[in-house]
Write a structure and sequence with these properties.
By secondary structure, the chain is α/β, with parallel strands linked by helices. Helices cover 55% and strands 10% of the residues.
Length: 305
């Protein structure tokens, strides 16, 4: 049996691997870094004093050639061959589609909101604490689970433990006091201050981010990503929030503030932000460049610099 596991949720992937190998003795579990010849050759070795063995490969990415090779492999019945991919997967090849059809590839994306809420409630209850649904909603948005690819269920689990150790009745104030918001969430807040034309809050937030040692190129690059999404949403004006969410694959709160501006304005913002990134790369001071760039962006949108 061969199986490729990939996606944005490593917690679910690792749980699946644990369940698959739980009845296989450790001496018959081999692990390899990268899809090497040695790893493939290991699938043909007989298990030691057992009927089954597992060969687990951890790969950073899966190319079209990798998938073609995997699809052609004839894995012995006594071997469970698992490839865990932490990065990108080429999904457009015939070989990948063939493996999908045979259920040899499984993607583990972010957990849907209803399931995530149930999990958070279960984790909190297990620690003899309590959390109301509005606080769960706030926590999910604050920690950035839905918008930050670096935030997984591992992050959620650790954060919930921190909250439960400190409070029996968890509140929004506890979340703000004990949990660090994801960088992506802080950048989303920054873009909202810009879209709301709130200059004082914008500059205050920039100063806070620099105090927390965020770098200028990183901030502007994340803002670029946020405004590219805003631009796509602005092109869909006239459709319902639900329709736009479905087309873009994001929650309405991620684009709603941008809908009062034209695609042309947001396109100009993208140009200004990219110029800011280029200036820092050319050696201009980071903080001054970011502030100047956001000042220009405010002027584009009609706000007071």
């Amino acid at each position: 049996m061969k199986l490729v596991l990939y996606g944005a949720e490593p917690y679910c992937i690792n749980n699946r691997v644990r369940k698959l190998i739980q009845e296989i003795d450790d001496m018959n579990v081999s692990r390899y870094q990268g899809l090497s010849r040695e790893a493939v050759a290991a699938t043909s070795r007989y298990p030691i004093m057992a009927d089954k063995q597992a060969v687990i490969v951890e790969a950073e990415k899966l190319t079209g050639d990798d998938t073609k090779m995997l699809e052609s492999l004839d894995i012995p019945e006594f071997t469970l061959f698992i490839v865990v991919v932490s990065g990108s997967v080429e999904t457009r090849t015939n070989a990948f589609k063939s493996m999908m059809k045979k259920k040899e590839v499984v993607e583990y994306g972010k957990v849907a909101e209803p399931e995530l809420k149930k999990l958070i409630t279960k984790l909190v209850t297990a620690k003899n604490s309590h959390i109301e649904e509005p606080v769960i909603d706030y926590f999910i948005k604050y920690i950035g689970y839905e918008i930050d690819e670096n935030v997984s269920l591992y992050t959620v689990n650790i954060a919930i433990k921190q909250l439960c150790y400190s409070a029996k009745e968890i509140t929004e104030e506890d979340v703000r006091a004990l949990i660090m918001p994801s960088v992506q969430v802080q950048i989303w807040e920054l873009s909202n201050f810009l879209l709301d034309l709130n200059g004082p809050a914008l500059y205050s937030h920039v100063t806070k981010l620099f105090d927390e040692k965020e770098n200028g190129i990183g901030m502007l690059s994340l803002l670029l990503r946020s405004f590219r999404l805003a631009y796509k949403a602005s092109l869909l004006k006239g459709r319902s929030d639900h329709e736009i969410s479905k087309i873009l694959g994001v929650k309405p709160f991620q684009f709603k503030a941008a809908m009062k501006f034209t695609p042309q304005q947001i396109s100009e913002i993208l140009t200004v932000l990219q110029q800011g990134v280029n200036s820092i790369k050319a050696g201009q001071p980071e903080k001054n460049t970011v502030i100047f760039t956001l000042n220009e962006a405010l002027l584009v949108l009609g706000g007071a610099a």
